[in-house]
């Protein structure tokens, strides 16, 4: 979740909490995610409003925050050593099973219908960090990818149509109906 849309928010010198936010229409996906970590979260997601800084339009989003803990504080020091998200060199250690890839893809993945390929957006990280991600995903899930520079959007991993077959097998196991729009090649 930290690699995707999750944010480790500092709560003091050594503690942090995991903050998850999604558009209000994806509250079921947010609930699915918090059910994966019931020891961290209590209560239900809240629907909040904010004003978009550029368009000035109001919109609703769903938010859930975990309890603060020293464990999450340690993760924050690994993933945010200078306050900005980075990819640690030992990333593969944190990708323990396929659900990690599924959550990351649901958060930041995109299926391009015309070319039948997929992308995993990595954001504004260095090329070296993108290489770490590429290698970790290959070593843990045997998914072959290429790094592409999408300029303002940062680096992405490109997965060919043949690799989508492997992605489909992973996502079928962790199917979340509200996220099906991101993966139209997947039918439960």
Topology readout:
Blueprint: E1 7-10, E2 16-23, H1 27-36, E3 46-51, E4 58-65, H2 70-79, H3 91-94, H4 98-108, E5 109-112, E6 117-123, H5 127-141, E7 146-149, E8 155-159, H6 161-173
Antiparallel strand pairs: 1-2, 2-4, 3-4, 5-6, 6-8, 7-8
Helix pairs in contact: 4-6
Largest beta sheet: what is the strand line-up? 1-2-4-3
Terminal Cα span:
23 Å
* Total DSSP E strands: 8
Rg, nearest Å: 17 Å
The CATH fourth-level homologous superfamily of the largest domain: Homing endonucleases
Mean pLDDT: 92
Secondary-structure element pattern, one letter each: EEHEEHHHEEHEEH
What general form does the structure show?
A: globular
Classify the beta-strand content into a percent band: 15-25%
CATH class of the largest domain: Alpha Beta
Low-confidence stretches: none
Number of helices: 6
What name is given to the CATH topology of the largest domain?
Answer: Endonuclease I-creI
Could you describe the largest sheet, including whether it forms a barrel?
4 strands, antiparallel
Q: From the 3D coordinates, which CATH architecture of the largest domain would you assign?
A: Roll
What descriptors fit this protein?
188 residues; alpha+beta; Endonuclease I-creI; 4-stranded antiparallel sheet; globular
Write up what this structure looks like:
With 188 residues, the chain is an alpha+beta fold. A hairpin with a 4-residue loop joins β5 (109-112) and β6 (117-123). It is 34% helix and 24% strand. The strands form two sheets. The protein has a four-stranded antiparallel beta sheet with strand order 1-2-4-3. It has two domains: 7-79, Homing endonucleases (Endonuclease I-creI, Roll); 91-182, Homing endonucleases (Endonuclease I-creI), CATH 3.10.28. It starts with 6 loop residues before the first strand and ends in a 15-residue tail after the last helix. The protein contains six helices and eight strands. The chain is globular. α4 (98-108) crosses α6. The model has no long low-confidence stretch (mean pLDDT 92). The protein has helices at 27-36, 70-79, 91-94, 98-108, 127-141, 161-173; strands spanning 7-10, 16-23, 46-51, 58-65, 109-112, 117-123, 146-149, 155-159.
């Amino acid at each position: 979740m930290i690699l995707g849309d999750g944010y480790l928010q500092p709560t003091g010198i050594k503690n942090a909490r995991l903050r998850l936010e999604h558009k209000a229409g994806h509250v079921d996906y947010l609930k699915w995610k918090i059910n994966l970590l019931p020891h961290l979260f209590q209560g239900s997601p809240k629907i909040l409003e904010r004003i978009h800084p550029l368009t000035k339009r109001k919109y609703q989003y769903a938010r859930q925050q975990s309890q603060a803990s020293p464990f999450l504080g340690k993760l924050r020091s690994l993933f945010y050593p200078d306050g900005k998200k980075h990819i640690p060199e030992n990333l593969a250690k944190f990708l323990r099973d396929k659900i990690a890839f599924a959550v990351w893809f649901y958060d930041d993945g995109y299926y391009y219908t015309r070319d039948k390929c997929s992308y995993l957006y990595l954001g504004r990280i260095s090329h070296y960090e993108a290489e770490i991600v590429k290698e970790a995903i290959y070593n843990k899930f045997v998914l072959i990818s290429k790094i592409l520079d999408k300029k303002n959007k940062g680096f992405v991993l490109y997965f060919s149509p043949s690799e989508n077959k492997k992605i489909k097998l992973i996502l079928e196991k962790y199917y979340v109906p509200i996220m099906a729009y991101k993966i139209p090649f997947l039918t439960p």
